[in-house]
Amino acid sequence: MDLIIGAGITGLCYALFTNNGYRIVEKEKEIGGYCRTTKRNGFVWDYSGHFFHFQDPEIMESIMSNIEDPDSIANVTKNTSIKYKTKLVDYPFQKNIHQLPQEEFIDCLVDLFSIDSKAGFQNFKEMLYCKFGKSIADKFLIPYNEKLYACNLNNLDKDAMGRFFPYADKEQIILNFRKGKAASYNDTFMYPRGGAIEYVNAVLKGVDSNVIQKETSIKSIDIQNKKAVLSSGEEMEYDNLISTIPFPKLLEIAHIDYDRNIYSWNKVLVFNLGFDKKGPNTTSHWLYFPEKKYSFYRVGFYDNILGQDRTSLYVELGFSKDEEIIPEQWKDKVLDDLVDAGCISSDDKLIDSETIIMDPAYVHITEASKNNVIVLKEYLETFGVYSIGRYGSWTYCSIEDNIKEAKALANKLSN
Ligand SMILES: Cc1cc2nc3c(=O)[nH]c(=O)nc-3n(C[C@H](O)[C@H](O)[C@H](O)COP(=O)(O)OP(=O)(O)OC[C@H]3O[C@@H](n4cnc5c(N)ncnc54)[C@H](O)[C@@H]3O)c2cc1C
Q: How far is the CA of 5 from the centre of ligand 1 (A)?
């Protein structure tokens, strides 16, 4: 019997694809992990905006085949911009510098062509300077990512965002000057009208929900004897233990000695806000805010994504892992900043809201964390303990990656 820890998308997908018997233990009242959705007062809010870009047709099919009404999934042509001083500049910044005022455009272009292509880089910040030049890095890439990650970017691995970082070489940047908006509008994404939980519900159709034990957390694991102790006091034996909880937490409960300084992450405070009417911004899907004067780094517009007639926003603020977050203390500042940024009007009435703290949200990937995760995951696997998922593998990834990883492990371990 396999014991799955966590009923987020990764844990549920492992259950979907395995032939082994299993039990699932989930500490929250509801399944879904970070793909949970709140539905209230006609608003549909995720744990921060969750949009889907499936690249693998097989993975997409494994989800879509369980969605009864294909019209319940919106296919949206992306419209995302950066609030740069008083202007909106298309995202990604580095490919749209021609939209800046002429002097700033020239600075970016000259710096881009002054890069020493032979210079090496050791960390994320150096990578930004080396690949894009000083002006592009200082005007957007560094201030934005410092707000998001809430850390010194020198501490992050040069490849901290993997394939999610929108790289562009000089040629692509120049060619985009002519394509302009058309190129940045090219990308599409999918979004279930009922929120991210609809994807979880689709997976659940192939999972035995009777064996999901909610409001139960795993407290301790005896890896040698393959026994787990649950918060209910129950002691369980297993053949394989599939953990999707944050990797450092797994190390704690499995009594593994490790260097705690290696693991760092940010926390994201999300405000989901619903207003009485449509606001001034009727076209953006989400906006990026590099300037420190705004409390948030990103704001998304569910109403513009789904064609709704009342403003429905998610607003994201980044914090370091040790900062105390008191959401109420941020609310007035967030609302003022939203007016200042043109996301809402001062007479728009807030009629419903909620806050969520994602902890961890973005893990800080460093050379040391990458190496430590590899070594300790291999060690745990020799005892039948497998750590997978965004936080189980301590990485930056999408739900498609989670589904792929869960499927590959299920295939490997299936009897
Ligand atoms: C701000 C933000 C925006 C994102 N946007 C997107 C997006 O647009 N598109 C996209 O594809 N991906 C996005 N992601 C990534 C996506 O959320 C994750 O890849 C995915 O939700 C991870 O699923 P998981 O099952 O691995 O982990 P989780 O969702 O964290 O699930 C782990 C589960 O384990 C449970 N658990 C924890 N500890 C215990 C314990 N001790 N005992 C029992 N259960 C426990 C938790 O309650 C949880 O249900 C985003 C992530 C963030 C932070």
A: 12
Shared-domain flag, residues 274 and 350: yes
- Let me know whether 297 and 245 are in one domain: no
Tell me the CATH number at 324: 3.90.660.20
For the chain, percent helix, then strand, then coil, each to nearest 5? Answer: 40, 25, 40
Ligand 1 atom nearest to CA at 35: 21
35 lines ligand 1 (CB under 6 A): yes
Please work out whether the CB of residue 315 comes within 6 Å of at least one atom of ligand 1.
no
Range of the domain at 255: 2-31+197-262+365-413
Query: DSSP class of residue 159?
Result: T
Q: Answer yes or no: are the C-beta atoms of 288 and 143 closer than 8 Å.
A: no
Average confidence (pLDDT) per 10 residues, the chain, 415 residues: 98 98 98 97 94 90 89 94 96 95 97 90 96 97 98 95 88 85 65 95 96 98 98 97 98 97 98 98 97 98 97 98 98 98 98 98 97 98 98 96 97 94
- Same structural domain, 348 and 392: no
The model's pTM: 0.96
Pair of tokens at residue 115: 């890069």
CA atoms in the 13 A half-sphere facing the CB of 267: 15
Which of 358, 387, 405 marks a domain boundary? 358
Report the SS3 class of residue 46: strand
Q: Is 28 in the pocket of ligand 1 (CB under 6 A)?
A: yes
Which residue reads 């562009």 in tokens? 168
Residues 258 and 279 in one domain: no
Tell me, letter by letter, the H, E, C secondary structure of 65-89: CCCCCHHHEEEEECCEEEEECCEEE
Q: Could you check whether the bond before residue 192 is cis, i.e. omega within 30 degrees of 0?
A: no
Say if residues 147 and 318 touch (Cβ distance below 8 Å): yes
